[in-house]
C-alpha cells in the first residue's frame, strides 16, 4: 500500500505562485502509478485538477487549471508536483494527491473513483 504526503500549501496573495509536492512511500515502484491532484473547497465536492501518466509524458488538466497549473513527476524521487501560478481566490481549497496503480504507461485518470490511494491534503488559501 502506498502512502502519500502532500506539502507546500500555504497562504498566498492573488497572482502569486505555489508549488505543491506529494511524496510517495511504500507500495509498488512509484513509476507504476498514475498520479492526480484534486481539490476540495469549503462546502463543495472534491474536484479534479490535474493528472499525469506513469512516464510523465501525458498530462490532463481541468479547465480551471489550464494555462496556470503544471503537473510533473520525478520518478527517481517518488514525488509528484503541482506548480500553481497566477493563483486566484477561487483556487482556495484543500489539495489532495492521489495514486492509481495502472498497467498502461500512457493512461491518465480524471475520475476520483479511479484512484485507490489518497494523501491527507494540504491547505491552499489565496487572498484577494
Structural class: mainly beta
Shape: globular
Cα separation of the termini? 40 Å
Helix percent band: under 10%
Number of helices: 0
**Radius of gyration, whole Å:** 14 Å
Largest sheet: 7 strands, mixed
What is the succession of H and E elements? EEEEEEEEEEE
Strand content: over 45%
Give the uncertain stretches in residue-range form: none
Q: In total, how many beta strands?
A: 11
Mean pLDDT: 96
What is shown here, in short?
It contains no helices and eleven strands. It is mainly β.
Describe this structure in words.
The mean pLDDT is 96. This protein is mainly β. Strands 2, 4, 5, 6, 9, 10 and 11 form a seven-stranded mixed sheet that branches. It has strands at 2-7, 10-13, 18-26, 33-40, 47-52, 59-61, 69-74, 79-84, 93-101, 117-118, 122-127. A hairpin with a 4-residue loop joins strand 7 (69-74) and strand 8.
Amino acid at each position: 500500500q502506498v502512502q502519500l504526503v502532500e506539502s507546500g500549501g500555504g497562504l498566498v496573495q492573488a497572482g502569486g505562485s505555489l508549488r505543491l509536492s506529494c511524496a510517495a512511500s511504500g507500495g509498488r515502484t512509484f513509476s507504476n502509478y498514475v498520479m492526480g491532484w484534486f481539490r476540495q473547497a469549503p462546502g463543495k465536492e472534491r474536484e479534479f485538477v490535474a493528472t499525469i501518466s506513469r512516464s510523465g509524458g501525458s498530462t490532463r488538466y481541468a479547465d480551471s487549471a489550464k494555462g496556470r497549473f503544471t503537473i510533473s513527476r520525478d520518478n527517481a524521487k517518488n514525488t509528484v508536483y503541482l506548480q500553481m501560478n497566477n493563483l486566484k481566490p477561487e483556487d482556495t481549497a484543500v489539495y489532495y494527491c492521489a495514486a492509481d496503480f495502472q498497467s498502461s504507461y500512457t493512461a491518465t485518470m480524471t475520475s476520483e473513483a479511479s484512484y485507490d490511494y489518497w494523501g491527507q491534503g494540504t491547505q491552499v488559501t489565496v487572498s484577494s
